[in-house]
Amino acid sequence: MSTTGHRVPVTVRGYETDANRHLNHAEYHRYGEHGREETLRAAGVEVAALAAAGLGPVILETTVRFLAELVVGDEVEIVTTTSFGAGKSFRMDAELVRVRDGATAATLTGVMGILDHATRRLVADPRGRLREVSSDPARLDDVL
Question: Which residues form a coiled coil (predicted)?
Answer without folding.
Answer: none
